[in-house]
Amino acid sequence: MSTSVKNSVVLATPGTTSHRTAEENLGLGYLARMLRDRGINVVVIDAWLEGLSPRQLADRITEVDDLLWYGFACYGFNSTQAIETTNLVKQKLTSVPAVVGGFGPTFQTQYFLESGFDYVVRGEAELTVLALTDRLQGKDVDSVPGAAYHVDGRVKHDRPAIWSADLDSYPFPCRDYTTTALQRGSAAHISTARGCNAHCLFCSINAFQTKASAPRWRSRSIESIVAELVELQALGARHIKVVDDSFIEPPRDGEWCTRFADAIEANGLDLTMWTYLRADRVDEHILSELKRAGFQSYFVGVENFSQRVLDRWSKPATVEQNHEALRLLRKLDYVVQGGMILFDSETVLDELEENYEAYRQYPWLVTKGAFTELYAAEGTPWTKILNRRTDNEPLPLVGQNYVYSVRDEAARAVYDAMKRWHVAHQPSYDKAIDPLAAPKAINREQMRSFEPALQRLRELDLDFMRKALDLARREPSSAALLEMEAEEEARTAPVFAAVDAEVDVLYQDLKLVYDADPNPFLIKPAPVGASS
């Protein structure tokens, strides 16, 4: 009988129920590189990019010889697919451990262990998977930092993971699926920093960072970033999505941006880039230098135009800073997607009015319609606050978010009406915004070709919002709102159809792929008349 040590690992992204089209998983690329540098045979399978079902993914996993363990990256709405795949694999490979990591497993460890996984990785996984591999190969390892697993029927949490403060110490990620992503017209991904220095109560990033002792925000050097960009350009990438949670944090400043742009030019890079920015971290010099470096589009976390709301969420930015950031971004001709949150449990009409007036000031700001709500995600301070307000009755959990009610009656009436409207038109919003939000491998002018459609959709939403606000002040009854909704649906149906047709033509002309699912984050609104 062979006594050889197993030396193969499968790292998989399950198929994902998402309103966005598939993108490469950079996290698994980092894990694959760490393991391959140790001599491990790593097979990466991206079922999202390949369009594989759980059965097809399970078959691919079980075909791998000499399998030591297999693992899944879970986020958003692919947990069900990961669990189903694991159960299928275990029918054939009963003794090979199943591992899972990501935001969902980090905050719902017990659930994932009870669902069939043998190990849950909590937080960043680079060093955890090395220790886990050593243990499973029989090496003398007393613990697996960052891992949770069952021991004698109880969940054991090993000591917290160790996250390196020096991101340059990590090798560049493997790029098994970058070519596939590029062939689908998607941008290549790069990570230049991890974390965020803000303390927003609703943010899962902050909660995720509590799983280890490390600086809240960590950066790679300019030399390291540019070296990887050179490699990506050599692979054929011209459009880059910088997946940092917050691209500009101290010590990155205007001088850093100048040196970064200089390095881009010195290396002959010709790239267009997209990333996430905080409104309170930018000024004209920073934005000008980033444009010289190749940035053409941003997702900016404005969130809300009411100072009372920003304070409620512990947002560090002020309303004035939000307006100033948008002014500068417009001046420098950037394509800007606004990260907006309109409703939470404490919303009142005056706050909605403040946002309505601000929305009207920025018709060029890319948003997915007007309706948005604060997600009460597992593990966040905001969710803990909400649960403390429910008199020990836990809020219902749907997916990875808790469901709550808007407490103010008039604001709740507007919420219900706007959500029903948004759900009815969600496919139009999602398809129109996907080339900018995903983002796709298109230039600024091609991005801007979607703006007229997005602006018309937003205008329709704001007209509806105005009517809902006026009705809620006069007569916040279900009957009155439903009558108004029916009238607006009939009036705007031809406009929505025309916008959809225009977007379809743009997809055909630009040869873009759209194979997304209905938005899983939109929890169906309560029936009219139901108690909130």
**CATH architecture descriptor name of the largest domain:** Alpha-Beta Horseshoe
Continuous helix count: 20
Uncertain spans = 524-532
| Biggest sheet character | 7 strands, mixed
Q: What structural class do the secondary elements suggest?
A: alpha/beta
- Mean pLDDT score: 93
Give me the count of strands: 17
Give a written overview of the molecule.
- This is B12-binding domain-containing radical SAM protein.
- Keywords: Iron, Iron-sulfur, Metal-binding, Methyltransferase, S-adenosyl-L-methionine, Transferase.
- InterPro entries: BchE-like, Cobalamin-bd, Elp3/MiaA/NifB-like_rSAM, Methyltransferase_Class_B, rSAM, rSAM_horseshoe, rSAM_sf.
- One of its GO terms (molecular function) is 4 iron, 4 sulfur cluster binding.
- It is a single chain.
- It is built from 20 helices and 17 strands.
- The protein folds into two domains: about 10-155, Cobalamin-binding domain (Rossmann fold, 3-Layer(aba) Sandwich), CATH 3.40.50.280; about 165-510, pyruvate-formate lyase- activating enzyme, CATH 3.80.30.
- The protein has a seven-stranded mixed beta sheet, sandwiched between helices. A five-stranded parallel beta sheet has the order 8-11-12-13-14. A three-stranded antiparallel beta sheet has the order 15-17-16, with helices on one face.
- The radius of gyration is 24 Å and the shape is globular.
- α4 links the parallel β3 and β4 (about 100).
- The longest helix is centred in the C-terminal third of the chain and has 33 residues, at about 480-510.
- By secondary structure, it is an alpha/beta fold.
- The termini are far apart.
